[in-house]
Write a structure and sequence with these properties.
The chain is an alpha/beta fold. It contains ten helices and nine strands. The protein has a single domain, classed as NAD(P)-binding Rossmann-like Domain (Rossmann fold, 3-Layer(aba) Sandwich), CATH 3.40.50.720.
Length: 268
């Protein structure tokens, strides 16, 4: 299937969940625009996906910690007359150092990639979606958005909570106009995220039944987004966990969290 000028744009598409979302959408016949920092890797992935699927794949290498990056990505799509009908805000990472050891500049870049760039890209593309009759937005959040504050990466959970609320606001304002936003909240997922974020030791101590493949998460995320669901918590395991997070006292959850995710609440 080749839908001329109709594209899905995926940030952080070079690895992990973003890459699997790209593969899943290509398998469904969607043309793709891949964006991430590493040009050579994106080129390899674009060729791989194009060779396997009858779709067009383009790419633009951008670092979303740069304030101008969302605008550059939007203008790239405009210059090529690409209609972005699906916007996947997936790019993200973690900070290795403790909050008091991290510079303000590093924290600002972190907030920009996980938060501000999501808002900017969504703001830029929504007018085009409105003129095209609708669209789908996916925001990769986290189960951490429902959890108690953590001793590991103290800004990560709060930013993801903010992204959930932002996604809700998009639905309130634009769902009746054909635009839906899906907040995807995965739990522990097998990607390079934890190694890059400096918490692989903690990840290795998580029970295997709580760790799922990026491919599994991507499949459920795409299905929920295409169906226009406002929230997607992939897997029954994490659906149950989120239910507990919403209904059980935080003091008890902290004890459970310490048992299931050692280091999350006891790191100095």
């Amino acid at each position: 299937m080749y839908m001329k000028n109709s594209y899905a744009l995926i940030t952080g598409a070079s690895s992990g969940i973003g890459l699997e979302i790209a593969k899943n959408l290509a398998g469904r016949g969607y043309n793709l625009i891949l964006t991430a920092r590493r040009t050579e890797l994106l080129e390899e992935l674009a060729k791989e996906i194009t060779d396997k699927n009858n779709v067009h794949v383009d790419l633009i290498s951008k670092d979303l910690s740069n304030y101008e990056a969302p605008k550059d990505i939007f203008e790239f799509c405009e210059s090529k007359n690409y209609h972005v009908d699906i916007l996947v805000n997936n790019a993200g990472y973690g900070i290795k150092t403790s909050f008091h050891e991290t510079s303000i500049e590093i924290e600002e870049d972190f907030i920009r990639v996980l938060g501000t760039s999501v808002i900017m890209l969504t703001k830029l593309f929504i007018p085009k979606m409105l003129s095209n009759g609708g669209g789908k937005i996916m925001i990769i959040s986290s189960v951490a958005s429902f959890a108690a504050p953590s001793a590991i990466q103290p800004l990560y959970g709060p930013i993801k909570t903010f992204m959930n609320r932002f996604s809700d606001s998009i639905n309130i304002n634009y769902k009746h106009k054909g635009i839906t936003s899906t907040s995807v909240c995965p739990g522990f997922t097998t990607t390079g995220f934890h190694t890059a974020s400096g918490v692989q030791d903690e990840m290795d101590r998580v029970p295997k039944f709580m760790v799922f493949s990026a491919e599994r998460i991507a499949k459920e995320a795409v299905e929920a987004t295409l169906a226009g669901k406002s929230l997607c918590v992939p897997t029954k395991t994490y659906k149950f966990l989120v239910f507990m997070l919403k209904n059980i006292p935080q003091s008890i959850l902290r004890l459970i969290g310490t048992a299931l995710a050692p280091g999350r609440y006891d790191r100095n």
